Amino acid sequence: MAQQERAVRTRHAVIQAAAAVFAERGYAAATIAEILGRAGVTKGALYFHFESKESLARGVLESQITNDHWVPREMKLQEWVDLSMTLAARIPHEVVLLAGIRLSADGQGRAMFGSAWPAWMEVVRERVAAAKEQGEVLAHIDPQQTAELFVGSWIGMQALSEAHSNWADLTERISTLFNYILPAIATPATLIKLDIAPDRGERVLQEVSRVPALAVGA
Amino acid sequence: MAQQERAVRTRHAVIQAAAAVFAERGYAAATIAEILGRAGVTKGALYFHFESKESLARGVLESQITNDHWVPREMKLQEWVDLSMTLAARIPHEVVLLAGIRLSADGQGRAMFGSAWPAWMEVVRERVAAAKEQGEVLAHIDPQQTAELFVGSWIGMQALSEAHSNWADLTERISTLFNYILPAIATPATLIKLDIAPDRGERVLQEVSRVPALAVGA
């Protein structure tokens, strides 16, 4: 195995292990010792990639943002829905996403290592701004405000879904969220064409796995 | 001072002190010793009212639900808006409410002492159900779903507001939330009559303080 490939694998193992520990225990209670044990790497290997627990948290948050599941769509509001619904479908199964939610919700930690929120807002803002340029969106809509409203509501729907069903109803709740906010955002002609069914995310993920070249990051 | 009056005052002092400590440190890091110190009461007096830290948390959560600021309105959707906007206006200044937010957001604690969420959902559900009976609401709306959507979004907007502005923009964000969801809920004839301006809560609070008899709990 080439040295570079080994480094990539080690980094990946450390991120997965750190994510598992952060997701289970939260940032404050997580220890480097437990992350080392789960990753099955040496202390030296871990510190080669991450100098501190704080930089591990940052690494986990950064590794969330990938283009792997992003399929460009003609209707930019559908692209926003698809990005959101695929994320909702992935959250219960991906420890890096679960860790990101817990780290982002940690008020004290956030001051040190940031959160997933600004990047998520920017993803939404870009889609709504592009949709506005294409005439899909009502004239008075401010994309930045829409992005903050959506990400804010999303954070709370996540919290409810975790508390009520351990994430099982997340896609249902995010579909409901779109149902309630899109009439205030989309033009009627766009609204009627949007697919926001709870299983939308699952269908897009299947589409990407069948034709990986569809996705931008492929 | 009559014995009963003294007991009420002690209980109030303990709840305020516990709320301050829970709001600042969270449930896990809070200690009975610190709560005692802030309340200025004896250990015996505290344990007369609350047998454990857990029952203190429950006491704080229960003491949030009062009718002091509830003004009945002919339009039940306006009543819902008013209840929400007065709550948003009070949160930055009332330690019992701040403690309730932090306790409710504590996933581990929630299993022990519950959260403010179910009571808050029920307040919303009742108003939307009454509004539906009066024809203020679109026919397909399910009041329980609307209540869960609103409380879920509310929780996240609170989190964003705390992170971005230490609560200063909360009334603005809740006003925005109503702006985005009410078109999917209210009939057009009701929608046009609703007052959801960011300063609505402050104005209702002034109305209640001028004419306390207006409020149901007075």
Automatic annotation (TrEMBL), chains A, B:
<dbReference type="InterPro" id="IPR036271">
    <property type="entry name" value="Tet_transcr_reg_TetR-rel_C_sf"/>
</dbReference>
<feature type="domain" description="HTH tetR-type">
    <location>
        <begin position="8"/>
        <end position="68"/>
    </location>
</feature>
<keyword id="KW-0805">Transcription regulation</keyword>
<dbReference type="GO" id="GO:0000976">
    <property type="term" value="F:transcription cis-regulatory region binding"/>
</dbReference>
<dbReference type="InterPro" id="IPR001647">
    <property type="entry name" value="HTH_TetR"/>
</dbReference>
<dbReference type="InterPro" id="IPR009057">
    <property type="entry name" value="Homeodomain-like_sf"/>
</dbReference>
<dbReference type="InterPro" id="IPR047923">
    <property type="entry name" value="ArpA-like"/>
</dbReference>
<dbReference type="GO" id="GO:0003700">
    <property type="term" value="F:DNA-binding transcription factor activity"/>
</dbReference>
<protein>
    <submittedName>
        <fullName>TetR/AcrR family transcriptional regulator</fullName>
    </submittedName>
</protein>
<keyword id="KW-0238">DNA-binding</keyword>
<dbReference type="InterPro" id="IPR050109">
    <property type="entry name" value="HTH-type_TetR-like_transc_reg"/>
</dbReference>
<feature type="DNA-binding region" description="H-T-H motif">
    <location>
        <begin position="31"/>
        <end position="50"/>
    </location>
</feature>
<dbReference type="InterPro" id="IPR023772">
    <property type="entry name" value="DNA-bd_HTH_TetR-type_CS"/>
</dbReference>
<dbReference type="Pfam" id="PF00440">
    <property type="entry name" value="TetR_N"/>
</dbReference>
<keyword id="KW-0804">Transcription</keyword>
